[in-house]
Design brief:
Leucine-rich Repeat Variant, mainly alpha
Length: 121
């Protein structure tokens, strides 16, 4: 079981050059019942978004509508790095999730939105 980002360096490296090739693998980690695996998925997205922010944002917009609350939460958590530099770019995801019916998802979006977009959320 993957519990550290260092264990997914190959995914991050591939994702930095072509994110679409690794999104399905990261999504499988995001669907895990193990919170450590989900955190690794989010952190891998943060790392990939340092080089490919627009591609990650576009994918997270889709993940924000996923049936699985763990995937929806990962869509918020995975954009932390982008949100710090360009908070306006993550608004489509935060706006979708801040009223999510699942408290786990809603809290993540509200915390991210409040910290990164004060006065907006």
């Amino acid at each position: 079981m993957v519990t550290k980002v260092s264990e997914v360096k190959d995914i991050v490296k591939k994702g930095e050059s072509n994110p679409k090739t690794v999104f399905s693998r990261i999504k499988k980690m995001a669907e895990s019942d193990d919170w450590k695996m989900r955190e690794v998925a989010a952190t891998a997205l943060v790392e990939i978004s340092k080089k490919k922010p627009n591609e990650v944002i576009q994918e997270m917009i889709h993940w924000a509508d996923d049936r699985d609350p763990n995937v929806r939460r990962t869509s918020s958590e995975g954009l932390r790095g982008v949100a710090r530099k360009s908070p306006e770019k993550v608004l489509p995801v935060i706006e979708r999730l801040k009223t999510d019916y699942n408290l786990y998802v809603k809290k993540s979006a509200r915390v991210s939105g409040t910290l990164l977009l004060p006065g907006v959320i």
